[in-house]
Design a protein that fits this description.
Layout (H helix, E strand, L loop, with lengths): L8 E6 H13 L6 E5 L1 H6 L2 H10 L4 E4 L2 H11 L4 E4 L8 H7 L3 E3 L2 H14 L3 E8 L7 E2 L3 H11 L4 E7 L11 H18 L13 H6 L7 E2 L23 E6 L2 E5 L4 E2 L5 E2 L4 E6 L17 E4 L2 E4 L9 E4 L11 E8 L2 E3 L1 H8 L3 H8 L5 E4 L1
Parallel strand pairs: 1-20, 2-3, 2-9, 3-4, 5-6, 6-7, 6-8
Antiparallel strand pairs: 1-10, 10-18, 11-14, 12-13, 14-17, 15-16, 18-19
Helix pairs in contact: 1-3, 3-4, 5-6, 10-11
Amino acid sequence: MEQWMERPVWAEIDLRALKKNIEIVQSRIAPGAEMLAIVKGNCYGHGLAECVPVMAGCGVRNFGAATLVEAREVRRLAGPDVRIVLLGLNHPAFAGVACELNVTTLIAGLDYARILSKEAVQRGQTIEVMGCVDTGMGRIGYQWDDPACVEELFEAARLPGLRMIGLFSHLACEDFEDKSYSDLQQERFEQVKQAMEARGLDLSLSSLANSPATSHRPQLHYGLVRPGGSLYGRYQGAHNRVEGIEAIMTVKAVILYLKDVPAGFSVSYGRSGITQRPSRIATLPVGYADGIPRNWGCGNGYVLIGGQKAPTIGHICMDQMMIDVTDVPGVKLYDEAVLIGKSGGEEIVLGDIGRACHILSNEVSLGILLRLPYKYLR
């Protein structure tokens, strides 16, 4: 624990593991396709300013951001020559910002396309765009079977100042073992793509594949593949596992209080934890304000101390949590507890917490970023 942290709880991000993950994912991309690394949400809570340079150092030249604010930071970090794709729809009021940052935006209507075209022409620019097609996610884009989809996207592609580089759609069920819905989405994607290519458009940088498809399904790769969670160590379930990929986040806390209590002793709000035997209870200075879900308490979760599992007891509080360390031999004040990561032969991954609390692992890592100090391992 280092003085600059000013807290006895912190997150460690292993940039060496990130580099290794990137290289593994790159090795699985089909020939002719390029990685569009997804860095939204501050790199899924792992730190944009630190992760993007590692990606650029691995040869990544395409980045996916969710907001123009993120895009601006990526442009600062990665330079003027990389491609930045805005993953959601841009408001017409910010067409000028898209031009200023030279960001590739999605076209899902002619109103935005015309405003962007006018802005680009006034600036003497040619701005890349991608046609956004809803093949089954139900979120944004033209419906794949709407006649206006091909007609309007073709019209947008011919507007001055715009260059349509491909189509963009998103898979809804690719992280499940059953790939039949993804196959249906690809069929729909192909139908629109072929109809537009028949009109003479070059859509060689189309994009459909997310993390699981990037790692396992080269037939979905097209020109740009979009790994996100896999770069940070996610998608390691049985049917999505990629050998060698590791979680890059570890969260540690120091025991700040220990007490020995009798059976029947109550712990936390609502007496939500009751000891069933004489017990030793440790208090850690971290809680749900630090991204540890409240539902990870009451024995639903655990931490690792010296390679041993120690279950939570009682509800997790905003800034503190209690752990039953009765069965951890030799535990003492100021010992380190691992909340996420490896200790001995045991490991807690973000997905373990997500499954137990019925949330996404991304929700956990994004919450960790709220106020914990971050230490980057290089």
